[in-house]
């Protein structure tokens, strides 16, 4: 019995010695070199975030405001005498990471959309706002004037309630009719499509390109140098903003659809498509040359035909891609630096008009990151 007890005690003492040694090793403070500074992929460290408006106008009604006579809210018969209306501004939401890169990314949505384009995807995954924040870029998301959170307009309009979900389903190249393309990079969960349709946003005033360009230019006046990221309809407005503001150091454009600008005397012939004609715009060479001074990358997704298509939703993007190729050639001919990436030609299949929120949006973000790195824009 004594021999057995002695043996147990020896084992116990040995275990205690080993535990003490392990504690001494593991409890020693790490040197500064050994302490990891890498931010956990599942967390984001943000030093500052918030929102503000830029641009806009103040509309004033004639007369004198009487706080007693006119101070009672009456929707059916409200006097406007001497009162003002603040509107036509852009709304901006921003986040700045703990260790931001030098140049922030400014994200501008397309037609019928809002900053939701860049936020959580319709099927609930991280959008470009979060993906690039995790890559240490400060991010600024825009709702352009008379849209979304910038809805206050100084001019009236009529907001219709047309049943046109299927029209946009085709134009945004999710599929044909109500059927998704077989290879599409969009979730087949019906709830994802429900969420997608519900992110459509109406204009609360007449669409005014000059107003939009002015507001976004004022944003760059406020924040300084940055990279403009556009989508669809904001692509054309993006070129105009880049001409206007030297703080734009590069442009990333996803599927620009209209308003390609060429120098005087070099405007290509209009390109016809089923249901319309795509025409380019003309600017003086002195303005056009600004576009040759900054790097530009353009991305187009899948299911854009090479030849005329019987489906209008596809055919209009055939025209846009064709015009984009002509635009690239013209800018580069004058010393510019435009890269055009047609994703299927890179072996990336199935992308819709919204590559930034498709199922493979991380892969698309990686392509954009690679381009930014190649151009020295991710420092």
Automatic annotation (TrEMBL):
<dbReference type="InterPro" id="IPR050228">
    <property type="entry name" value="Carboxylesterase_BioH"/>
</dbReference>
<keyword id="KW-0732">Signal</keyword>
<dbReference type="InterPro" id="IPR029058">
    <property type="entry name" value="AB_hydrolase_fold"/>
</dbReference>
<feature type="signal peptide">
    <location>
        <begin position="1"/>
        <end position="25"/>
    </location>
</feature>
<protein>
    <recommendedName>
        <fullName>AB hydrolase-1 domain-containing protein</fullName>
    </recommendedName>
</protein>
